[in-house]
Amino acid sequence: MATHTPGEHIAELRKTYSISKEMLAERSGISVDLIEKIEGEGHIPDLAPLIKIARALGVRLGTLLDDHEELGPVICRSGVAESAVRFVTGLPEKSVPSAGDHQGLSFKPLAADKNGRHMEPFIVEIESDAEQEKTAHEGEEFIFVIEGNLSLEYGAIKDTLKAGDSVYYDSIVPHRVLSADTNPVRILAVIYTPV
Q1: Cα 11–193–88 angle (5° rounding)?
Q2: How do residues 62-86 score in pLDDT, each as one tens digit?
Q3: Segment 143-157, tens digit of pLDDT
Q4: Are 97 and 178 contained in the same domain?
Q5: Domain hosting residue 49, numbered range
Q6: What is the mean pLDDT of the chain?
Q7: Which domain CATH number covers 85?
């Protein structure tokens, strides 16, 4: 089954609902330039724009990430998420990664096929040189550090989480996660966004 990028889903939804890029930009608060990069180049600076675009289109975040949906439980076997990279984020808007380039934050969905879900579970790999601005959006997040040292910035709070540590927070507060040192970090992240 062919996979589709979030940008392809956005373009298809815009076409279905007869919404121009300019209208979507106005409704979501995302620039037309960024919408064009997301649709045309598969560029995602972070999840916040996707959440705002999903809201503006009247769909849940998962609609932009899904290929097909399962009504029953979705089991993601060991090793399968490793091959399910859908998009890379964390890069400045002006740069788009090419093969072998700096990769930022790679999100690997664990329940992409679950119908009607309200949580988005991911395995996230954060490169040591990842760049990411603080973002804020509706919802809540839970992070469990699998491997490495995670630097968490949440409002004015700065902390380091090690393997086995976890954090749960409201996403409305500006936040970001990065590698705390020169090694990559691997985390389980669950993002909840209200419908």
Answers
A1: 50
A2: 778 765 555 567 777 776 665 445 4
A3: 999 999 999 999 999
A4: yes
A5: 6-65
A6: 81
A7: 2.60.120.10
